[in-house]
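Q: Hi! Curious about what ABC transporter permease looks like structurally. Here's the sequence.
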Amino acid sequence: MLSSLRYAALAAALIAAPALAEQNGTLRIGVMNDMSSVYADFQGPGSVLAAQLAVEDFAKQSKRKVEVISADHQNKPDVGAGIARRWFDVEGVDMVIDLPNSAVALAVSDIGREKNKVVIGSGAGTAALTGPRCSPNFVHWTYDTWAFGHGTARGVLAQGGKTWFFITADYAFGHDLEKQATDEVNASGGKVLGVVRHPLGTNDFSSFLLQAQASKADVVALANAGGDTVNAIKQAADFKIGEKQKIVALIFDLQSVPAIGLKTAQGLTAINAWYWDLNDDTRAFAKRFAERHPKKMYPNHMHAGVYSAVLHYLKAVDKVGSPTDGKAVVDAMKAMPTDDPLYGKGTIRADGRKIHPLYLLQVKSPEESKSEWDAFKITGTIPADKAFRPLADGGCPLVAGAK
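A: Let's find out. The predicted structure is below.
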């Protein structure tokens, strides 16, 4: 048991800490993600770097002092929640961003609402974050499970893939991604023949792939991400599943391509919210990012989302005048059009969903690729007004009566 003196000191620290950053004249941003497991290359240090680059660019137009800190949530909601409470209560963090792992993101979003702090999801996937679990303190950047589940399934169904078998990551993100794709399959007259679910960070997919192969479904759909998707695709190639069935990764990011290899990955299709080779601004950012990344990686759409979101957040803080009232800052973010060198112009809806186009991508062949990160060719665009779930369909309590 704490002594009365130690207890009093701790209590005083907890009361005083939220104001520390403001007293010191420094706004604090916390980048929380997976630094050591299946998502480490897909967000990890790259997201921290993206936030730092946004802060550096913001410094060209504002004298506000900003600090970026980071932590590894280990893909555990209790760990992520503990970090968020410590950051908000003790370390004076004003905003938390990234949050790849939907279960962690949901927990941290709830804490942000409780503490009236800002939470932004760039790596987080579940569309529940702007649906029934929406919050006046949360903004969802980059992508979500509705957009990718429906968008990918729609494209595959149009190509004749009518029967589906899902291999799904067994947590909130995977379940939601599977549901969104299933809804599109059922609505379009297709049929789901089976589902198997695997733990996060699975190394051996053989039993799951054999079940998918035995189903004889037209499509083997991977409702997972990061290292799990990479392992599943590599092992599917060993079983030669792609010779008779179509392998579809519902989430497929830039870092997956070198990890799999162009020879195996060529021809795979994907949807991303951004690609580094879109224009001169995105190419310049990618080069700057890679020069400072510890593994010299190019940025994916979630890294770019962190940059874009941090820049818009900081503009909103300057407009409000202080980061203290998180809801007021999010209201300002929604009221201001978004505009930055990577994502261009956009908006944030009442439910917290950031709206922008999505890009249809296809992995290049080894002959087409000119360098390690020259991975995709753009085959189409989903317009911003068609890319995400209709506002009225999400069930977000914040948008009753909104259009």
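A: A fun detail: The chain has 15 helices and 15 strands.
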